[in-house]
C-alpha cells in the first residue's frame, strides 16, 4: 500500500524568505501523480501544485516549485519570497494513475507553516 | 470554477442523534469523497463514490454510511452520533479522467457531538 510521510508537523519562516516543506512517499507503482494542497485558516483546501511522475522536469507555479526525486521517492515544496498569505496547513498527496484502480488519494498528515512578519 | 458546497459550516448534535452531512458539486464529477480531518492525523478517508449509487469504504468507515442518489450529491450519515465523531468533515470531488485530476474541496463542516 502507498504511504505519504510529512516529517515536519510545523515550520516557521520569515516573510520574504524561502522555505522548503518535505514529503516522502512509498509506492511500487511507476505511474502516479503527486500534489501539494494548501489549507488556509478559512479551511477550504486548494491545489497548489501537481507533478506527473513520468515528467523529469519539476513543476513550478509562480513562487511555488517542487523538487521531485523519483528514485528517492521525495517530493518537496519550495515557497520563495514567503508572504503572510502563505500561512496555512500544507498537505502532500499521492494518486495512482493506473486504470481500474480505485481513485483513493493518499494524504500526508500535513505541515503547518507560520509566516513571521 | 468547480464549486463544492457543504450544507453546514458548524453543527452541534447530541450523542445518539442521526446526523446528515450534505455535499453538492456543480461540475459533473464522477468521484466524490468524504474525509475526516483531526489534528495530528491529517485527512482520513471515510467513504468515496465513483458513480451514482456506488460507494466504497475508505480507511475509517465504522459508524458512518453514505448515500449517492444523484451524481451531484453525496451525503454522509452518522447513524448514531458519538463524541468520538466530533471532528472536521471535508467533502471533495474529482473527475475520473486520469490520475492528474485534482480534488476540489468544500469548506468543511465542523461537527461537535455532545
How would you explain this protein's 3D organization?
The complex is a heterodimer of chains A (117) and B (114). Chain A is mainly β and 117 residues long. Chain A is built from no helices and 12 strands. Chain A has strands spanning 3-5, 10-14, 19-21, 24-26, 32-39, 46-52, 60-61, 64-69, 74-79, 88-96, 105-107, 111-116. The model of chain B has no long low-confidence stretch (mean pLDDT 93). Helix content of chain B is 0%, strand content 53%. By secondary structure, chain B is mainly β. In chain B, a hairpin with a 3-residue loop joins β4 and β5. Chain B has strands spanning 4-6, 10-13, 19-25, 31-38, 42-49, 56-57, 64-70, 73-78, 87-94, 104-105, 109-113. In chain B, strands 2, 4, 5, 6, 9, 10 and 11 form a 7-stranded mixed beta sheet that branches.
Brief account:
The complex is a heterodimer of chains A (117) and B (114). Chain A is mostly beta strands.
Keywords:
heterodimer, A: 117 residues, mainly beta, 6-stranded mixed sheet, 4-stranded antiparallel sheet, B: 114 residues, 11 strands, 53% strand
First CA to last CA of chain A: what distance?
A: 41 Å
Tally of helical segments of chain B: 0
Percent of residues in helices of chain B comes to under 10%
Oligomerization category of the chains in this entry? heterodimer
The main sheet of chain B comes to: 7 strands, mixed
* Estimated structural class of chain A: mainly beta
Poorly predicted residue ranges of chain B: none
Tell me the distance between the termini of chain B. Answer: 37 Å
Mean pLDDT of chain A, as a whole number? 92
- The beta-strand count of chain A equals 12
Work out the strand percent of chain B: over 45%
Specify the overall morphology of chain A. globular
The poorly predicted ranges of chain A are: none
- CA-based gyration radius of chain A: 14 Å
Instruction: Decide which structural class fits the backbone of chain B.
Output: mainly beta
Q: For the report, how would you describe the main beta sheet of chain A? A: 6 strands, mixed
